[in-house]
Known about the structure:
The protein is of the alpha/beta class. Helix content is 40%, strand content 20%.
Amino acid sequence: MVHSPPVIPRILGLVALCALASIGGAARPARGADGLHLVLTPSQKPTDLMATGEEFGKVIAQLTGIPVRVTVASDYAAVIEALRNRTADLAFVHPGGYVLASREAKARIVVRNLWHGKSSFTSRIYVRREAGLKTLEALRGKTIAFIDPASSSGYIYPMVLLIQRGLVKNRDPKTFFREVVFAGAHDAGMRALLNGHVDALASFDMAREQYLSDPAERERIVFVAETPEIPEAGIAARDGLDAATFAKVRAALLQIRAPAYAALLKRLYEIDGFAPAEDRDYDPVRAAIELLGVRPR
């Protein structure tokens, strides 16, 4: 877990970086002769993702006839930057990351994930049961772990909830919490909460079940608030990817689902498959980002 500078400046810095990248950036061909580059978002340990990601890339290659190279991004910002710089052709994006990538990099959503049979989820603010914290208001002056400034469930939606409840002022979580840290990954955040390093955690609605296999550990974690539904994460394509390749990739991804690929998808991101997605599906996320005041300089 790493301590972070103020959140909005970090995101604005990313936006400024994207803007600078557009100046003098070399245009990439519609599709390179070496095939497609797929970037994975580090929602868990990158080392755990890489082998599974390469296997997933081979399946896409088999279904499309196009070679696929897979890498794991260092963080959420790196995913957006790769799409902006066109060093990535495809990338797994969280909802907030997609909105930023579509706005700053002109990325296009290809499909969105199916997870536990749904294509939406919520964010929860978790605490340890033994701490006796029952409400959001009880977290005043406590410590919280968010995941990443571009994470919908790990920052954007819970921050909107805190703002709407009148607890966070001026879009600064430190007006309510004593200390704010960014875990970088959901599993690391859950472990930090369980081990008492923070008093609260903002993460997705099934994080407890996904990352705590021990029933006794799960019993120790409860939540004090939950957000409205969030459209699921998915796979986005960079601007300039030719229409034929885009269509071929979308058709292939829609074929990758349970039962044939259930084990692979579970190892990848604990998902069931993919559903068709359109840019307008993410308008609620855009509204949340707008409320947080994330704008280009």
